[in-house]
């Protein structure tokens, strides 16, 4: 079983390094993988099946819907609307979006999902104590 949470941490550091040096396209691309890995952590923790390969395995909108999360708004909605694996073949981001806004949205999404992971982990731990106690 993949340790999606650990991968998310590594990709977050890489995205920050790229953003700090002005390489926004790469930073946005990696930020999408942070969100993807956090979503997969949440889904896995809650026993929700999700695609593990192919394009659907990287579909943030599909993974978000599988988690039954409300539609993201603001910068987070902007990020999920613009991110896709096809960014790996691009040389620049679309001219009509600010890369800093996209990165802000990616951080918001990743943070929001991380909070849901902590909540789900706490619920599981509490349930385990009830069974063992």
What portion of residues belong to β-strands? under 5%
Class derived from helix and strand content: mainly alpha
Taken in chain order, the helices and strands follow as HHHHH
Task: Round the mean pLDDT to the nearest integer and report it.
Answer: 92
* Helical run tally: 5
Shape: elongated
Quaternary structure state of the chains depicted: single chain
List how many beta strands DSSP finds.
0
Low-confidence stretches: none
Radius of gyration: 16 Å
Tell me the major beta sheet.
none
- In whole angstroms, the N-to-C terminal distance is 29 Å
The helicity comes to 55-70%
Your description of this structure?
With 133 residues, the protein is mostly helical. Helices cover 67% and strands 0% of the residues. It has helices at residues 4-20, 24-45, 60-66, 74-82, 99-132. The protein is elongated, with a radius of gyration of 16 Å. 29% of the residues are buried.
Topology:
Blueprint: H1 4-20, H2 24-45, H3 60-66, H4 74-82, H5 99-132
Helix pairs in contact: 1-2, 2-3, 2-5, 4-5
Quick recap of the structure?
This protein has 133 residues and is mainly α. Helix content is 67%, strand content 0%. α1 (4-20) packs antiparallel against α2 (24-45), α2 (24-45) runs parallel beside α3 (60-66) and α2 (24-45) packs parallel to α5.
